[in-house]
Structures are given as structure tokens and as C-alpha cells.
Amino acid sequence: MPDVIVAHPGWGESLFLKDVWPAARLGMYCEFYYCTENADVGFDPEFSRAGDLQASRLRVKNANNLLHFEFADAGLAPTAWQASTFPEAFRSRITVAHDGIDTRVVRPRPDVRLVLNARGRQVELSRSNEIVTFVSRNLEPYRGYHVFMRALPQLLSARPDARVLIVGGNEVSYGGPPPDGGSWKEVFIREVRSRISDADWDRVHFMGKLEYDQFIALLQLSTVHVYLTYPFVLSWSLLEAMSCGCAIVGSDTAPVREVIQEDETGRLVDFFDTTALAQRVCELLDDAPARQRLGARAREFAVARYDLRQVCLPQQRNWVESLAPEFA
């Protein structure tokens, strides 16, 4: 007989658990509630779906969330903005506590090295190199891959010594695939390639998906890290970049503003402004003291708010115990 059950309601597996164990307390992991405005839907007109069925599609997507509101005892959301997407009637039952970042592992490392296989030859990179990083689970519009790629010609032209390291797969995590098939990665390579010389293109490295230790090494190596997203679920990778002490240029969108304060823990730029993105990255590449200051404050913020052992696990444990206080 479980005392507490914690479930993600999105696919419906937990709909009948309280029928089996009526005395159990049920906590929902409130990851995201789809909204018709002020979130991801319709944010990027270039990829928005036209037609009158949008609201109906979202209603179906939210169906399992809605069905749980009647009997779930409490909710847990990783960020305040994600909690704010839920209907007000249930929002008062949601506690905000992030999944947590292991800041003892994800930390700055001045002596980090990374070996690239660059066009058939091995290149060892260190913190002395000028490196711009971009990370997404998959390279797609939801995470601003198209915006980053469109900024590349200007960025590469302005920074003849910079290398650009792009992490991410070729599949689709959010949204839809390209209408003509293939991958979003290739769609936007084709769009910008003619505006980038062969010599400059040799400094662009698609890393694919990395093992975790390699991924952290890449963040530790970064001179400037770029993170872009629709108003949607916040990526762990941004908090990991902050924990590594990266100097960050992020999109001025709601989930990012929760952790990146302008000129405090990073710099912000309009999601769609590719010229401004390239300029802000170049400004930081030219300003080592600013990078050091922003990176240090980003690290402090990540440790203070999102450390796994000292902050997030205690918050999660307190939440679980609050569901069944007699077992605390």
C-alpha cells in the first residue's frame, strides 16, 4: 500500500491509481500546460500551424492534465513559469522545486581539454581558444536552432578565430518535422551555407549527441554559450551552463528570464533578432572581464537556487512528506 504516488500525468498512466489505492496521496509532476497564447503556440509565425483546429488540438493535449485536477492532491513544477501555465484553479496546489543540478560535478574547470576530429585531423581545444557553444537535445526551431544558424554568417565573419560547437541530434523533440522531409539541421545548413566561406565553415563543428562527461567538458570549454527557446519547458542545459560558469547569451523569453537577468547572470537578446544575437556574442567575446563576472554570478545563482543535494532534493523531500505528513 503506497503512502504517496508521484506521477507525470501527460500520458494517462496515473488516471486510475487512486481507484486501486484510494488512501494513497497523488502528486502530479506539472511539467507544462499548453496555452493558446503567451506560450509556445503561435510564438514563431514561421512555423505556426494555420487553421481553426489549434485550440482543439491543445484541448486534447491537455486532457490528461485536466482529468487529474479532480483527484490529484498536489503538484510539483520545476520552474515558476512552467507552474504559471496551469489553470488558476489548480495552480495554488503546485509547489515549485527544480529537478536539480549536481553543481559539484557540473562546475568550472580551467584546465579542461577537448579533442575534436576536425575534417579528418585532430584538434585539441582549451580555454585559450575562442569557442561559441550551442546546445539542444535535437536541432529544431523550438530551441532556436534556425535563429542561431542565421546568425552564423555574421558571427563567423566578425570572429575569424572562433570555433562554433553545436550539440544536438537530428530528430524532433518538440513541434513537427520539416514539411519536405529530412532534418531541421540540414534545412538550415542549406539556407546559410552559401553565405559562409569554406574556411569559415571549417570552424563550425556539429557534435551530435554527446556522452555526459563530454557534454560537461564542452560547457567548461565555452567562451560564450548561446541558449534560445520558445516560451516552453526550460532546458536543463541552460542551468548546467550556468553551473559551469559560462558567459551566456539567452533569448529574452519568459522561461529564460527566470534565471538570466540582464547583465547579472548573462545577457538577453530578442529571440528573432539574428543581427543582435551575433552582436551580443561578439561583445562578450571582446570583453573578458564581463565574461568572468557574468560567469561567476551565473555559477553562484545555479548553486544557490538549483544545487541538487543542498537545495532541490530537500525541497522535493519536503513536498513528498507534506503529502503524507504522518509518515515524515
Automatic annotation (TrEMBL):
BP term (GO), one: lipopolysaccharide biosynthetic process
Pfam families (UniProt xref): Glyco_trans_4_3, Glycos_transf_1
InterPro entries reported in the protein's UniProt record: Glyco_trans_1, Glyco_trans_4
GO molecular function annotation: glycosyltransferase activity
Annotated keywords: Transferase
Residue ranges occupied by any Glycosyl transferase family domain in the UniProt entry: 2-105, 121-300
Top-level taxon: Bacteria
Protein name, per record: A-glycosyltransferase, Glycosyltransferase Family 4-like protein
Gene source species: Ramlibacter tataouinensis (strain ATCC BAA-407 / DSM 14655 / LMG 21543 / TTB310)
